[in-house]
Amino acid sequence: MLRRGGVSRLDDRVMGAFVMAGSFIVLLYYGFFVLFSEYGLIVVKWTAFLAVAGALAISAWIGYTLAATPSPGPLEFSMDESEGEAEPEG
Questions:
Q1: Is residue 25 domain-shared with residue 54, that is, in the same domain?
Q2: Buried-state track 8-37, b at ≥16 Cβ within 10 A, e below 16
Q3: What is the extent of the structural domain holding 47?
Q4: Which residue among 27, 40, 55, 82 is least crowded, i.e. fewest CB within 10 A of its CB?
């Protein structure tokens, strides 16, 4: 049951299980620090800051991409005399 590159489906399932288990463990630690630790307020503040910073970084990347990418030229259409329908050129 090999796929391209010699990687089996079992490897994907094992990796998925590790990601799921790791996420659950991080969730437990996060919940403990927020709810039962004296550092709960700091953890929430940093989490909120990182979430907003990540969203603004993605927004800045989209803005840079829009500003740095040249506009495509206008499409020119010509009438094909045999069919009578417009077809784009180029």
A1: no
A2: eeeeeeeeeeeeeeeeeeeeeeeeebeeee
A3: 38-68
A4: 82
50 and 22 in a common domain: no
Q: Which residue has the tokens 């800045």?
A: 60
Q: Each residue of 4-28: pLDDT tens digit? A: 666 677 789 999 999 999 999 999 9
The residue assigned the tokens 């740095």 is 68
Q: Are residues 30 and 46 in the same domain?
A: no
Domain shared by 22 and 1, yes or no: yes
Over residues 23-80, the pLDDT tens digits come to 999 999 999 999 999 999 999 999 999 999 999 999 999 999 999 998 888 888 777 6
Are 78 and 86 contacting, i.e. CB atoms less than 8 angstroms apart? yes
Q: How many domains does the chain have?
A: 2
Residue 63 lies in a domain: yes
pLDDT for the residue numbered 9: 74
- Cα gap 90→87, rounded to integer Å: 10
